[in-house]
Amino acid sequence: MPEEKPRILVVDDEPNIRELIRLYLGKEGFAVEESEDGEDALARVKANPPDLLVLDVMMPKKDGREVCREVRKTSSLPIIMLTAKNEEVDKVIGLEIGADDYLTKPFSPRELVARVRAVLRRVRPAHEQEADALAFNDFTVNHDSRELRVHGQVVPCPAKEFDLLWLFAKHPQRVFTREQLLQQVWEYDYFGDLRTVDVHVRRLREKIEPQPDEPRYIKTVWGVGYKFEGAS
Predict the structure, then answer these.
(1) Do 22 and 108 fall within a single domain?
(2) In CATH, what number is assigned to the domain containing residue 102?
(3) Which of 71, 69, 100, 104 lies closest to 85, judged by CA?
(4) Quick check: is 111 in a domain?
(5) Strand duo 139-142 + 147-150: pairing
(6) Rounded CA gap, 35 and 71, in Å?
(7) 190 lies in which domain range?
(8) What is the pLDDT of residue 232?
(9) What domain count does the chain have?
(10) Which one of 99, 122, 145 terminates a domain?
(11) Domain identity same for 18 and 75
């Protein structure tokens, strides 16, 4: 049987934007579905979750931020957000509410394709991945199932957060600069600033640290970057 194409749900109220994305992703072998508003998108995600969500911020009924927040309550579905704005605060807000990536319009369709591929590589089916897991006092992280459990409870962990945590956990006591983390976790030429790393570290701390303001695991190395300490 032929391999099933990855399904991408494109949510944007501009038909020309949806068409552009559909053409480029379709040429690259993706199965593209379209939605024009946030309420319809949430209904589609609930009924038949896609492999990845391309989500515009400014939309009728429910905007992209509301949709992202709703999805993140129950799912680690990969999300790439689109916006017509180019303000840094919008980008940071998008990452803080759980988006895996963020592109501003006008964007390069080829760049969007590259980012979609990079995210899907990180969430490929478990049978294609190395079976491995690491356990610590407060949480376990399983690379085979891409599952984070904190005190035995599964905690939704978006793709980039998971890969960042896995990189830290596999290299205890190693100090990473922010530039190194961007290069190793994001996997492509990332056109953003280093605060992207800080946002993801803060979100990870909120998930795994007993006291996020006094981290036990992900330590800040002032003037350099971060390191992971696996001991209690």
Answers:
(1) yes
(2) 3.40.50.2300
(3) 104
(4) yes
(5) antiparallel
(6) 15
(7) 130-228
(8) 45
(9) 2
(10) 122
(11) yes
Confidence class of residue 201 from pLDDT cuts 50, 70 and 90? very high
DSSP letter, residue 225: E
Distance between CA 16 and CA 20 in Å, rounded?
6
**Please, are residues 192 and 175 in contact by the beta-carbon 8 Å criterion?**
no
Same-domain status, 176 and 207? yes
Helix, strand, coil content of the chain in percent (nearest 5): 40, 20, 40
d(CA 138, CA 208): 7
- Asked if residues 66 and 42 have their Cβ atoms less than 8 Å apart, the reply is no
Q: Kindly state whether residues 108 and 199 are assigned to the same domain.
A: no
**Do 162 and 202 fall within a single domain?**
yes
pLDDT, one tens digit per residue, over 18-76 is: 999 999 998 888 999 999 999 999 999 998 899 999 999 888 888 888 899 899 888 88
Question: What are residue 80's DSSP bridge partners?
Answer: 54, 101
Letter for the amino acid at 99?
A: A
> Which residue bears the tokens 């319009």?
105
Per-residue pLDDT at 125: 52
SS3 132: coil
